[in-house]
Amino acid sequence: xxxxxxxxxxxxxxxxxxxxxxxxxxxxxxxxxxxxxxxxxxxxxxxxxxxxxxxxxxxxxxxxxxxxxxxxxxxxxxxxxxxxxxxxxxxxxxxxxxxxxxxxxxxxxxxxxxxxxxxxxxxxxxxxxxxxxxxxxxxxxxxxxxxxxxxxxxxxxxxxxxxxxxxxxxxxxxxxxxxxxxxxxxxxxxxxxxxxxxxxxxxxxxxxxxxxxxxxxxxxxxxxxxxxxxxxxxxxxxxxxxxxxxxxxxxxxxxxxxxxxxxxxxxxxxxxxxxxxxxxxxxxxxxxxxxxxxxxxxxxxxxx
Length: 304
Ligand SMILES: Nc1ncnc2c1ncn2[C@@H]1O[C@H](COP(=O)(O)OP(=O)(O)OP(=O)(O)O)[C@@H](O)[C@H]1O
Ligand SMILES: O=P(O)(O)OC[C@@]1(O)O[C@H](CO)[C@@H](O)[C@@H]1O
Fold this sequence. Notes:
The chain is an alpha/beta fold and 304 residues long. The protein is built from ten helices and 15 strands.
């Protein structure tokens, strides 16, 4: 089973506005509501790809109720802890540019944190736990590391798509996959990543003997994967980028779906990149058929 954790889920409220004017009255031409948060997105795509998944995390209020109902409609299992406070709404404004306003999220008590850790303790050997997204301010940045340690004890695979202090904290902790984008990797090592060589050098530093695989996505410039056997580069398919929300989450889902189906890291990597681009070229998260179609356009090169 692949479990995902979203500590700070959201309703993603997508607003399309022609020629947005700051400080003026703008009227949206189209609006959409989606269940959001990075872990939830990973679960939604896995489910589209017929991979069994359960979404965990904290949820509450009418917004939390909406998310649970939307996940049920999409046949995504969930087992959230109720915070008794409203889950946030994140605004994604699509005009000539994409702008995002993400809410802060609720306070999570020590008891609620403990309850989530107890759920993680129930994982079995071979399960996957994917943690992705921001950590609410009332929780320690080391919370992901605590979950990773518990996964190691249970022989479950730990996967993280995070940045900043939470990512730094995972260096030296056993993980199956880390997936920063090149900006997040640069920020971690206080540098700017301009080339794939820069990305490879710093991905290896992040891998630091304890991560099995590190993927660094570089938007339209492709992606690299390093592990203890080889270094790979994947191109991205060509297309019109419509939506970056959830593209990074799609890379993680595609990789895991490919890995669970084939046990082959190269194939999983190609599938992850195809899934990322399929979402980037769609209005919402990608559909399975489109991911399969784009997979044919992704070539994985073994660099060393
Ligand atoms: N211009 C593009 N052309 C094709 N694919 C793209 C493009 N931009 C992004 N993608 C796809 O989306 C994936 C993730 O993009 P990116 O590297 O920007 O990660 P991210 O910043 O984590 O994503 P997100 O914007 O969802 O947070 C890429 O690996 C690629 O598959
Ligand atoms: O505020 P966070 O937790 O960093 O990111 C949350 C978020 O922007 O990430 C997802 C896309 O990756 C969206 O569904 C959601 O709104």
